[in-house]
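Before going further, it is useful to explain how the protein records used in this thesis are read. An example of such a record is reproduced below.

***
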Amino acid sequence: MEKGSTTPQMDNVQMRAVIASNGTATTVTANNGFSSPSRLGGLPNLNGWLNNLPSLKSEPEEVHIGRLTGVNTTIKSNLGRFTYMLLKLRKLQLEVNYFTECIHEGVVPKCLRLWQYPTGLQDASDFHQELLALFNRHGTELMELLYHLKKVHFQTSDGEDLFFDENGDVVVRSDIVNWQLTPDGVMKSLTVGWSKPYTLHGQQLFVNNSAVVWSGGHFEVPKSVCSEACNAGYRRVIRQGEPPCCFDCIPCSDGEIANKSGKCICIKCPDDYWSNTEKDFCISKYIEFLSYEDPLGTSLAAIAVALSLMPVGVLCIFIKHHDTPVVKANNREISYFLLVILTLCLLASLIFIGHPRNETCIFRQPAFGIFFSICVSAVLAKTITVVIAFRATKPGSRLKNLFGSKTSFFTIVCCSVVEIIICIAWISVSPPFQETDKTYPQKTILQCNEGSAAMFYCMLGYLGILATISLLIAFHARNLPDSFNETKFITFSMIVFISVWLSFIPAYISTKGKYMVAVEIFAILSSSTGLLLCIFSPKCYIILLRPDMNTRRYLVRQNVA
Protein backbone atom coordinates (compact mmCIF):
# COMPACT_ATOMS: atom_id res chain seq x y z
CA MET A 1 0.00 0.00 0.00
CA GLU A 2 1.11 3.60 -0.58
CA LYS A 3 0.70 6.76 1.51
CA GLY A 4 0.43 10.29 0.23
CA SER A 5 1.94 13.38 1.88
CA THR A 6 1.58 17.15 1.58
CA THR A 7 1.70 19.16 -1.67
CA PRO A 8 4.99 19.10 -3.56
CA GLN A 9 7.67 21.78 -3.25
CA MET A 10 10.52 22.24 -5.74
CA ASP A 11 13.48 23.12 -3.48
CA ASN A 12 12.94 20.89 -0.52
CA VAL A 13 10.78 17.93 -1.33
CA GLN A 14 9.78 15.29 1.19
CA MET A 15 7.92 12.18 0.21
CA ARG A 16 6.65 9.03 1.83
CA ALA A 17 5.77 5.79 0.15
CA VAL A 18 4.85 2.43 1.59
CA ILE A 19 5.73 -0.31 -0.85
CA ALA A 20 5.58 -4.07 -0.63
CA SER A 21 9.04 -5.62 -0.63
CA ASN A 22 8.89 -9.37 -0.08
CA GLY A 23 5.74 -8.88 1.96
CA THR A 24 7.28 -6.28 4.30
CA ALA A 25 5.68 -2.83 4.70
CA THR A 26 8.34 -0.13 4.50
CA THR A 27 8.28 3.65 4.93
CA VAL A 28 10.60 5.57 2.62
CA THR A 29 11.57 9.20 3.02
CA ALA A 30 13.77 11.22 0.66
CA ASN A 31 14.90 14.82 0.19
CA ASN A 32 15.47 16.81 -2.99
CA GLY A 33 18.07 19.44 -3.86
CA PHE A 34 21.10 17.92 -2.08
CA SER A 35 24.70 18.80 -2.70
CA SER A 36 27.14 16.02 -3.38
CA PRO A 37 28.24 14.41 -0.13
CA SER A 38 31.91 14.04 0.77
CA ARG A 39 31.37 11.01 3.06
CA LEU A 40 28.77 8.40 3.96
CA GLY A 41 25.88 9.96 5.78
CA GLY A 42 26.58 13.41 4.34
CA LEU A 43 22.99 13.93 3.19
CA PRO A 44 21.09 16.36 5.43
CA ASN A 45 18.73 14.37 7.68
CA LEU A 46 19.47 11.18 5.76
CA ASN A 47 20.65 9.37 8.88
CA GLY A 48 17.35 10.23 10.55
CA TRP A 49 15.40 8.76 7.62
CA LEU A 50 17.52 5.65 7.52
CA ASN A 51 16.99 4.99 11.21
CA ASN A 52 13.28 4.57 10.46
CA LEU A 53 13.90 1.95 7.76
CA PRO A 54 13.90 -1.79 8.61
CA SER A 55 16.86 -3.77 7.36
CA LEU A 56 16.29 -6.36 4.61
CA LYS A 57 15.87 -9.97 5.66
CA SER A 58 17.29 -10.98 2.26
CA GLU A 59 18.36 -9.25 -0.88
CA PRO A 60 15.35 -9.06 -3.22
CA GLU A 61 16.01 -9.37 -6.90
CA GLU A 62 13.19 -6.95 -7.71
CA VAL A 63 10.73 -4.77 -5.88
CA HIS A 64 7.02 -4.61 -6.89
CA ILE A 65 5.14 -1.37 -6.43
CA GLY A 66 1.69 -2.82 -7.08
CA ARG A 67 -1.05 -1.67 -9.39
CA LEU A 68 -1.12 2.08 -9.74
CA THR A 69 -3.57 3.15 -12.44
CA GLY A 70 -2.35 6.02 -14.55
CA VAL A 71 1.25 5.86 -13.33
CA ASN A 72 4.10 5.70 -15.82
CA THR A 73 5.96 2.37 -15.87
CA THR A 74 9.32 4.16 -15.71
CA ILE A 75 8.25 5.99 -12.57
CA LYS A 76 7.18 2.74 -10.98
CA SER A 77 10.48 1.12 -11.92
CA ASN A 78 12.51 4.05 -10.60
CA LEU A 79 10.48 4.12 -7.39
CA GLY A 80 11.14 0.42 -6.85
CA ARG A 81 14.85 0.86 -7.55
CA PHE A 82 14.98 3.88 -5.28
CA THR A 83 13.34 2.01 -2.44
CA TYR A 84 15.56 -1.03 -2.79
CA MET A 85 18.68 1.13 -2.77
CA LEU A 86 17.59 2.86 0.41
CA LEU A 87 17.10 -0.48 2.14
CA LYS A 88 20.39 -1.80 0.89
CA LEU A 89 22.22 1.34 1.95
CA ARG A 90 20.67 1.06 5.41
CA LYS A 91 21.80 -2.53 5.71
CA LEU A 92 25.37 -1.77 4.69
CA GLN A 93 25.51 1.22 7.01
CA LEU A 94 24.48 -0.92 9.99
CA GLU A 95 27.19 -3.47 9.19
CA VAL A 96 29.86 -0.77 8.88
CA ASN A 97 28.87 0.75 12.20
CA TYR A 98 28.96 -2.64 13.90
CA PHE A 99 32.37 -3.42 12.37
CA THR A 100 33.72 -0.08 13.63
CA GLU A 101 32.53 -0.79 17.16
CA CYS A 102 34.14 -4.24 17.07
CA ILE A 103 37.48 -2.69 16.08
CA HIS A 104 37.28 -0.27 19.02
CA GLU A 105 36.52 -3.14 21.39
CA GLY A 106 39.30 -5.35 19.95
CA VAL A 107 36.90 -8.09 18.87
CA VAL A 108 36.75 -9.61 15.36
CA PRO A 109 33.34 -11.24 14.77
CA LYS A 110 33.66 -14.43 12.71
CA CYS A 111 30.14 -14.32 11.28
CA LEU A 112 30.09 -10.62 10.38
CA ARG A 113 28.45 -10.23 6.96
CA LEU A 114 30.90 -7.47 6.02
CA TRP A 115 33.77 -9.99 5.88
CA GLN A 116 31.99 -11.78 3.07
CA TYR A 117 32.07 -8.51 1.10
CA PRO A 118 35.51 -6.95 1.39
CA THR A 119 34.32 -4.11 -0.75
CA GLY A 120 31.42 -3.37 1.56
CA LEU A 121 32.58 0.14 2.33
CA GLN A 122 32.96 0.94 -1.33
CA ASP A 123 29.56 -0.64 -2.06
CA ALA A 124 27.97 1.68 0.48
CA SER A 125 29.54 4.72 -1.12
CA ASP A 126 28.47 3.60 -4.59
CA PHE A 127 24.90 3.03 -3.44
CA HIS A 128 24.94 6.44 -1.89
CA GLN A 129 26.04 8.14 -5.08
CA GLU A 130 23.56 6.20 -7.22
CA LEU A 131 20.78 7.05 -4.80
CA LEU A 132 21.47 10.76 -5.17
CA ALA A 133 21.65 10.56 -8.94
CA LEU A 134 18.37 8.62 -9.15
CA PHE A 135 16.52 11.09 -7.00
CA ASN A 136 17.91 14.12 -8.83
CA ARG A 137 16.70 12.69 -12.17
CA HIS A 138 13.23 11.49 -11.17
CA GLY A 139 12.35 13.40 -7.95
CA THR A 140 9.62 15.44 -9.65
CA GLU A 141 7.88 12.39 -11.08
CA LEU A 142 7.98 10.66 -7.68
CA MET A 143 6.39 13.65 -6.01
CA GLU A 144 3.68 13.77 -8.64
CA LEU A 145 2.96 10.11 -7.89
CA LEU A 146 2.63 10.83 -4.19
CA TYR A 147 0.37 13.78 -4.91
CA HIS A 148 -2.08 11.51 -6.70
CA LEU A 149 -1.80 8.82 -4.04
CA LYS A 150 -2.92 11.31 -1.45
CA LYS A 151 -6.29 11.66 -3.19
CA VAL A 152 -6.99 7.93 -3.41
CA HIS A 153 -10.40 7.11 -1.89
CA PHE A 154 -12.41 4.02 -2.84
CA GLN A 155 -14.56 1.28 -1.36
CA THR A 156 -13.52 -2.32 -1.05
CA SER A 157 -15.68 -5.28 -2.01
CA ASP A 158 -16.92 -5.38 1.61
CA GLY A 159 -18.16 -1.79 1.35
CA GLU A 160 -15.40 -0.38 3.55
CA ASP A 161 -13.82 2.97 2.69
CA LEU A 162 -10.07 3.06 1.98
CA PHE A 163 -8.21 6.37 1.95
CA PHE A 164 -5.23 8.20 3.49
CA ASP A 165 -5.41 10.77 6.31
CA GLU A 166 -3.49 14.02 6.57
CA ASN A 167 -0.42 12.19 7.90
CA GLY A 168 -0.34 9.77 4.98
CA ASP A 169 -1.57 6.86 7.10
CA VAL A 170 -4.09 4.46 5.65
CA VAL A 171 -7.52 4.57 7.28
CA VAL A 172 -9.20 1.19 7.16
CA ARG A 173 -11.33 -1.03 9.33
CA SER A 174 -9.48 -3.54 11.48
CA ASP A 175 -10.97 -6.71 12.94
CA ILE A 176 -10.20 -7.80 16.49
CA VAL A 177 -9.51 -11.54 16.47
CA ASN A 178 -9.50 -13.86 19.48
CA TRP A 179 -7.61 -17.14 19.16
CA GLN A 180 -9.45 -19.87 21.05
CA LEU A 181 -8.54 -23.45 21.87
CA THR A 182 -11.31 -25.93 21.01
CA PRO A 183 -11.99 -29.06 23.10
CA ASP A 184 -10.27 -31.04 20.34
CA GLY A 185 -7.05 -29.14 20.96
CA VAL A 186 -7.30 -27.10 17.75
CA MET A 187 -6.74 -23.34 17.72
CA LYS A 188 -9.38 -21.33 15.88
CA SER A 189 -9.78 -17.61 15.34
CA LEU A 190 -12.97 -15.78 16.13
CA THR A 191 -13.72 -12.16 15.27
CA VAL A 192 -14.89 -10.52 18.49
CA GLY A 193 -14.90 -6.87 17.46
CA TRP A 194 -13.70 -4.22 15.08
CA SER A 195 -12.06 -0.80 14.94
CA LYS A 196 -13.27 1.95 12.57
CA PRO A 197 -11.15 5.08 13.00
CA TYR A 198 -13.21 7.11 10.53
CA THR A 199 -16.58 6.68 12.27
CA LEU A 200 -18.16 8.97 14.83
CA HIS A 201 -16.53 9.46 18.21
CA GLY A 202 -17.69 6.77 20.62
CA GLN A 203 -18.40 4.31 17.77
CA GLN A 204 -14.83 3.71 16.65
CA LEU A 205 -14.26 0.58 18.70
CA PHE A 206 -16.49 -2.39 19.44
CA VAL A 207 -15.58 -5.50 21.43
CA ASN A 208 -17.97 -8.32 22.28
CA ASN A 209 -16.57 -9.16 25.71
CA SER A 210 -18.89 -12.13 26.14
CA ALA A 211 -17.34 -13.83 23.12
CA VAL A 212 -13.75 -13.44 24.34
CA VAL A 213 -12.20 -16.58 25.82
CA TRP A 214 -9.02 -16.06 27.86
CA SER A 215 -6.24 -18.51 28.54
CA GLY A 216 -7.45 -21.51 30.49
CA GLY A 217 -10.98 -21.24 29.11
CA HIS A 218 -11.96 -18.35 31.38
CA PHE A 219 -14.49 -15.73 30.30
CA GLU A 220 -13.27 -13.11 32.80
CA VAL A 221 -10.18 -10.98 32.39
CA PRO A 222 -7.34 -12.80 34.17
CA LYS A 223 -5.69 -11.03 37.07
CA SER A 224 -2.09 -10.15 36.41
CA VAL A 225 -1.19 -8.96 39.91
CA CYS A 226 -0.31 -10.84 43.06
CA SER A 227 -2.56 -8.64 45.24
CA GLU A 228 -5.67 -6.62 44.54
CA ALA A 229 -5.39 -2.84 44.61
CA CYS A 230 -6.02 -1.39 48.06
CA ASN A 231 -9.32 0.39 48.48
CA ALA A 232 -9.62 3.99 49.61
CA GLY A 233 -8.76 4.28 53.28
CA TYR A 234 -6.00 1.67 53.04
CA ARG A 235 -2.32 1.81 52.11
CA ARG A 236 0.02 -0.76 50.61
CA VAL A 237 2.73 -2.52 52.59
CA ILE A 238 5.04 -4.68 50.48
CA ARG A 239 5.57 -8.18 51.81
CA GLN A 240 9.11 -8.96 52.79
CA GLY A 241 10.94 -11.26 50.39
CA GLU A 242 8.23 -11.13 47.71
CA PRO A 243 7.91 -9.20 44.43
CA PRO A 244 6.75 -5.55 44.61
CA CYS A 245 3.35 -6.55 43.22
CA CYS A 246 2.69 -8.62 46.34
CA PHE A 247 1.55 -6.43 49.21
CA ASP A 248 -0.87 -6.23 52.11
CA CYS A 249 -3.49 -3.54 52.63
CA ILE A 250 -3.63 -1.99 56.09
CA PRO A 251 -5.98 0.79 57.24
CA CYS A 252 -4.67 4.30 57.53
CA SER A 253 -3.90 5.50 61.03
CA ASP A 254 -6.29 7.80 62.86
CA GLY A 255 -6.02 11.30 61.47
CA GLU A 256 -4.79 10.07 58.07
CA ILE A 257 -6.67 9.29 54.87
CA ALA A 258 -6.19 7.66 51.46
CA ASN A 259 -8.80 9.20 49.18
CA LYS A 260 -7.92 6.98 46.19
CA SER A 261 -7.38 3.29 45.73
CA GLY A 262 -3.88 1.88 45.36
CA LYS A 263 -2.20 4.46 47.61
CA CYS A 264 1.25 3.66 49.02
CA ILE A 265 1.08 6.26 51.78
CA CYS A 266 -1.70 7.92 53.75
CA ILE A 267 -2.10 11.68 53.87
CA LYS A 268 -2.30 13.37 57.26
CA CYS A 269 -5.33 15.59 57.80
CA PRO A 270 -4.79 19.28 58.73
CA ASP A 271 -4.84 20.25 62.41
CA ASP A 272 -8.48 21.36 62.27
CA TYR A 273 -9.63 18.14 60.59
CA TRP A 274 -9.82 14.45 61.40
CA SER A 275 -10.32 11.31 59.34
CA ASN A 276 -13.78 9.82 59.01
CA THR A 277 -14.61 6.23 59.86
CA GLU A 278 -13.71 4.95 56.37
CA LYS A 279 -10.39 6.91 56.41
CA ASP A 280 -11.07 8.31 52.92
CA PHE A 281 -12.10 11.87 53.79
CA CYS A 282 -11.08 14.56 56.28
CA ILE A 283 -13.90 16.02 58.34
CA SER A 284 -13.85 19.04 60.63
CA LYS A 285 -13.11 18.36 64.28
CA TYR A 286 -15.93 19.21 66.63
CA ILE A 287 -15.21 21.94 69.18
CA GLU A 288 -15.44 20.87 72.80
CA PHE A 289 -16.00 23.07 75.84
CA LEU A 290 -18.39 22.98 78.78
CA SER A 291 -21.39 24.86 77.45
CA TYR A 292 -24.84 25.46 78.85
CA GLU A 293 -26.26 23.39 75.99
CA ASP A 294 -24.15 20.41 76.98
CA PRO A 295 -26.01 17.99 79.29
CA LEU A 296 -23.13 18.08 81.75
CA GLY A 297 -23.01 21.87 81.73
CA THR A 298 -26.78 22.14 82.10
CA SER A 299 -26.76 19.75 85.05
CA LEU A 300 -23.95 21.55 86.86
CA ALA A 301 -25.55 24.95 86.27
CA ALA A 302 -28.91 23.73 87.61
CA ILE A 303 -27.24 22.22 90.67
CA ALA A 304 -25.28 25.43 91.33
CA VAL A 305 -28.39 27.58 91.16
CA ALA A 306 -30.36 25.17 93.36
CA LEU A 307 -27.60 24.98 95.97
CA SER A 308 -27.20 28.77 96.00
CA LEU A 309 -30.78 29.02 97.23
CA MET A 310 -29.88 27.05 100.36
CA PRO A 311 -27.73 29.74 102.05
CA VAL A 312 -30.31 32.32 101.01
CA GLY A 313 -32.99 30.26 102.76
CA VAL A 314 -30.83 29.83 105.86
CA LEU A 315 -30.16 33.57 105.88
CA CYS A 316 -33.90 34.25 105.80
CA ILE A 317 -34.43 31.85 108.73
CA PHE A 318 -31.67 33.56 110.74
CA ILE A 319 -33.06 37.02 110.01
CA LYS A 320 -36.51 35.92 111.07
CA HIS A 321 -35.18 34.45 114.35
CA HIS A 322 -32.39 36.97 114.88
CA ASP A 323 -33.28 37.50 118.57
CA THR A 324 -33.09 33.82 119.53
CA PRO A 325 -30.07 32.55 121.53
CA VAL A 326 -28.92 30.15 118.81
CA VAL A 327 -28.66 32.95 116.25
CA LYS A 328 -26.97 35.33 118.66
CA ALA A 329 -24.40 32.75 119.72
CA ASN A 330 -20.97 33.02 118.06
CA ASN A 331 -21.37 36.39 116.43
CA ARG A 332 -24.60 36.82 114.52
CA GLU A 333 -23.13 39.33 112.00
CA ILE A 334 -20.38 36.91 110.97
CA SER A 335 -22.99 34.22 110.37
CA TYR A 336 -24.93 36.56 108.07
CA PHE A 337 -21.74 37.50 106.23
CA LEU A 338 -20.69 33.84 105.86
CA LEU A 339 -24.05 32.90 104.35
CA VAL A 340 -23.74 35.67 101.76
CA ILE A 341 -20.19 34.61 100.84
CA LEU A 342 -21.27 30.97 100.52
CA THR A 343 -23.98 32.08 98.07
CA LEU A 344 -21.33 33.91 95.99
CA CYS A 345 -19.03 30.88 96.10
CA LEU A 346 -21.78 28.65 94.72
CA LEU A 347 -22.70 31.14 92.00
CA ALA A 348 -19.01 31.62 91.07
CA SER A 349 -19.09 28.16 89.51
CA LEU A 350 -21.34 29.53 86.74
CA ILE A 351 -18.39 31.58 85.42
CA PHE A 352 -16.67 28.33 84.48
CA ILE A 353 -19.55 27.26 82.17
CA GLY A 354 -19.87 28.66 78.67
CA HIS A 355 -17.60 29.58 75.75
CA PRO A 356 -14.11 30.36 77.08
CA ARG A 357 -13.12 33.97 76.46
CA ASN A 358 -10.18 36.00 77.61
CA GLU A 359 -12.40 38.04 79.95
CA THR A 360 -13.93 35.02 81.69
CA CYS A 361 -10.58 33.22 81.79
CA ILE A 362 -8.94 36.15 83.57
CA PHE A 363 -11.57 36.58 86.29
CA ARG A 364 -12.96 33.10 86.99
CA GLN A 365 -10.01 31.64 88.95
CA PRO A 366 -9.24 34.84 90.92
CA ALA A 367 -12.97 35.23 91.72
CA PHE A 368 -13.09 31.66 92.96
CA GLY A 369 -9.94 32.14 95.06
CA ILE A 370 -11.00 35.46 96.61
CA PHE A 371 -14.55 34.29 97.50
CA PHE A 372 -13.27 31.10 99.10
CA SER A 373 -10.52 32.91 101.00
CA ILE A 374 -13.15 35.26 102.45
CA CYS A 375 -15.34 32.26 103.25
CA VAL A 376 -12.58 30.33 105.04
CA SER A 377 -11.46 33.54 106.77
CA ALA A 378 -15.02 33.99 108.08
CA VAL A 379 -15.01 30.43 109.42
CA LEU A 380 -11.63 31.14 111.05
CA ALA A 381 -13.07 34.34 112.55
CA LYS A 382 -16.03 32.37 113.97
CA THR A 383 -13.61 29.84 115.48
CA ILE A 384 -11.49 32.58 117.03
CA THR A 385 -14.66 34.25 118.36
CA VAL A 386 -15.67 31.03 120.11
CA VAL A 387 -12.23 30.73 121.75
CA ILE A 388 -12.18 34.39 122.81
CA ALA A 389 -15.72 34.18 124.17
CA PHE A 390 -14.81 31.21 126.33
CA ARG A 391 -11.51 32.69 127.54
CA ALA A 392 -13.07 36.06 128.23
CA THR A 393 -15.42 34.57 130.87
CA LYS A 394 -12.49 33.87 133.16
CA PRO A 395 -11.89 36.48 135.90
CA GLY A 396 -9.24 39.06 135.03
CA SER A 397 -9.02 38.04 131.36
CA ARG A 398 -7.96 40.80 128.98
CA LEU A 399 -9.62 39.08 126.04
CA LYS A 400 -12.87 40.92 126.80
CA ASN A 401 -11.53 43.87 124.86
CA LEU A 402 -11.10 41.68 121.76
CA PHE A 403 -14.57 40.23 121.85
CA GLY A 404 -16.92 41.70 119.22
CA SER A 405 -17.66 42.05 115.51
CA LYS A 406 -14.73 44.39 114.87
CA THR A 407 -12.19 41.74 115.76
CA SER A 408 -13.93 39.18 113.55
CA PHE A 409 -14.09 41.46 110.49
CA PHE A 410 -10.49 42.54 111.07
CA THR A 411 -9.49 38.86 110.97
CA ILE A 412 -11.44 38.38 107.73
CA VAL A 413 -9.83 41.39 106.06
CA CYS A 414 -6.30 40.49 107.12
CA CYS A 415 -6.62 36.90 105.94
CA SER A 416 -8.34 37.77 102.66
CA VAL A 417 -6.00 40.57 101.61
CA VAL A 418 -3.15 38.09 101.16
CA GLU A 419 -5.22 36.09 98.66
CA ILE A 420 -6.20 39.30 96.88
CA ILE A 421 -2.54 40.28 96.53
CA ILE A 422 -1.71 36.85 95.09
CA CYS A 423 -4.50 37.14 92.52
CA ILE A 424 -3.50 40.69 91.51
CA ALA A 425 0.11 39.59 91.03
CA TRP A 426 -1.10 36.60 89.01
CA ILE A 427 -3.20 38.75 86.66
CA SER A 428 -0.40 41.31 86.29
CA VAL A 429 2.46 38.92 85.60
CA SER A 430 0.90 36.00 83.72
CA PRO A 431 -2.86 36.35 83.30
CA PRO A 432 -4.99 33.37 82.16
CA PHE A 433 -6.09 33.37 78.52
CA GLN A 434 -8.20 31.38 76.11
CA GLU A 435 -6.38 28.75 74.04
CA THR A 436 -7.24 26.15 71.42
CA ASP A 437 -5.80 22.67 71.83
CA LYS A 438 -5.77 20.76 68.52
CA THR A 439 -3.66 17.81 69.67
CA TYR A 440 -6.63 15.60 70.53
CA PRO A 441 -8.19 13.21 68.01
CA GLN A 442 -11.58 14.06 66.53
CA LYS A 443 -11.99 17.24 68.59
CA THR A 444 -10.58 20.71 69.18
CA ILE A 445 -10.65 21.76 72.82
CA LEU A 446 -11.38 25.35 73.76
CA GLN A 447 -10.13 25.99 77.26
CA CYS A 448 -8.60 28.55 79.56
CA ASN A 449 -4.87 28.40 80.01
CA GLU A 450 -4.08 29.40 83.60
CA GLY A 451 -1.07 31.38 82.41
CA SER A 452 1.05 30.48 85.42
CA ALA A 453 0.42 27.12 87.03
CA ALA A 454 2.63 28.15 89.95
CA MET A 455 0.36 31.09 90.77
CA PHE A 456 -2.73 28.88 90.51
CA TYR A 457 -1.39 26.34 92.96
CA CYS A 458 -0.07 29.14 95.17
CA MET A 459 -3.65 30.44 95.41
CA LEU A 460 -4.93 26.95 96.29
CA GLY A 461 -2.09 26.49 98.75
CA TYR A 462 -3.01 29.64 100.66
CA LEU A 463 -6.61 28.42 100.91
CA GLY A 464 -5.25 25.18 102.31
CA ILE A 465 -3.23 27.09 104.91
CA LEU A 466 -6.29 29.05 106.07
CA ALA A 467 -8.38 25.87 106.23
CA THR A 468 -5.67 24.05 108.19
CA ILE A 469 -5.38 26.88 110.73
CA SER A 470 -9.16 26.90 111.19
CA LEU A 471 -9.15 23.12 111.62
CA LEU A 472 -6.42 23.22 114.28
CA ILE A 473 -8.06 26.00 116.28
CA ALA A 474 -11.50 24.39 116.07
CA PHE A 475 -10.07 21.03 117.07
CA HIS A 476 -8.28 22.64 120.02
CA ALA A 477 -11.58 24.21 121.18
CA ARG A 478 -13.69 21.08 120.74
CA ASN A 479 -14.03 20.55 124.58
CA LEU A 480 -15.60 23.94 125.30
CA PRO A 481 -18.98 23.98 127.11
CA ASP A 482 -22.02 22.77 125.12
CA SER A 483 -23.42 26.27 124.68
CA PHE A 484 -20.36 27.00 122.56
CA ASN A 485 -20.08 23.65 120.81
CA GLU A 486 -20.08 25.17 117.28
CA THR A 487 -16.38 24.38 117.09
CA LYS A 488 -17.20 20.69 116.68
CA PHE A 489 -19.18 21.46 113.53
CA ILE A 490 -16.47 23.82 112.30
CA THR A 491 -13.90 21.06 112.80
CA PHE A 492 -15.94 18.64 110.74
CA SER A 493 -16.62 21.28 108.06
CA MET A 494 -12.88 21.98 107.69
CA ILE A 495 -12.14 18.26 107.38
CA VAL A 496 -14.69 18.04 104.55
CA PHE A 497 -13.27 21.19 102.91
CA ILE A 498 -9.65 20.00 103.02
CA SER A 499 -10.58 16.48 101.85
CA VAL A 500 -12.45 17.83 98.84
CA TRP A 501 -9.62 20.05 97.66
CA LEU A 502 -6.91 17.46 98.30
CA SER A 503 -8.79 15.01 96.06
CA PHE A 504 -9.42 17.79 93.56
CA ILE A 505 -5.75 18.34 92.67
CA PRO A 506 -4.97 14.87 91.17
CA ALA A 507 -8.37 14.73 89.47
CA TYR A 508 -7.82 18.21 88.00
CA ILE A 509 -4.38 17.30 86.65
CA SER A 510 -5.48 13.99 85.09
CA THR A 511 -8.43 15.40 83.11
CA LYS A 512 -8.60 17.73 80.11
CA GLY A 513 -11.18 19.78 78.30
CA LYS A 514 -14.67 20.15 79.66
CA TYR A 515 -14.18 17.40 82.23
CA MET A 516 -11.36 19.34 83.86
CA VAL A 517 -13.73 22.29 84.25
CA ALA A 518 -16.45 19.99 85.55
CA VAL A 519 -14.07 18.63 88.22
CA GLU A 520 -13.35 22.13 89.51
CA ILE A 521 -17.04 23.06 89.53
CA PHE A 522 -17.82 19.89 91.45
CA ALA A 523 -15.11 20.75 94.00
CA ILE A 524 -16.54 24.27 94.42
CA LEU A 525 -20.09 23.03 94.89
CA SER A 526 -19.22 20.15 97.21
CA SER A 527 -16.89 22.17 99.47
CA SER A 528 -19.34 25.09 99.71
CA THR A 529 -22.24 22.75 100.44
CA GLY A 530 -20.14 20.92 103.02
CA LEU A 531 -19.42 24.17 104.89
CA LEU A 532 -23.08 25.18 104.76
CA LEU A 533 -24.46 21.88 106.02
CA CYS A 534 -21.82 21.23 108.71
CA ILE A 535 -22.03 24.69 110.29
CA PHE A 536 -25.65 25.76 109.83
CA SER A 537 -27.75 22.59 109.63
CA PRO A 538 -27.57 21.94 113.44
CA LYS A 539 -28.75 25.49 114.12
CA CYS A 540 -31.58 25.23 111.59
CA TYR A 541 -32.61 21.97 113.21
CA ILE A 542 -32.90 23.68 116.63
CA ILE A 543 -34.66 26.76 115.23
CA LEU A 544 -37.22 24.88 113.14
CA LEU A 545 -37.69 21.50 114.85
CA ARG A 546 -36.58 22.02 118.48
CA PRO A 547 -37.67 25.49 119.52
CA ASP A 548 -37.56 24.33 123.16
CA MET A 549 -33.79 24.22 122.89
CA ASN A 550 -33.63 27.76 121.45
CA THR A 551 -34.21 29.49 124.83
CA ARG A 552 -31.92 31.23 127.27
CA ARG A 553 -33.15 29.03 130.11
CA TYR A 554 -32.08 25.90 128.21
CA LEU A 555 -28.64 27.33 127.56
CA VAL A 556 -28.17 28.30 131.22
CA ARG A 557 -29.26 24.84 132.32
CA GLN A 558 -26.71 23.32 129.91
CA ASN A 559 -23.99 25.51 131.38
CA VAL A 560 -24.91 24.55 134.95
CA ALA A 561 -24.98 20.91 134.03
The chain has four domains: 14-164, 173-211, 234-284, 295-560. Residues 173-211 form one domain.
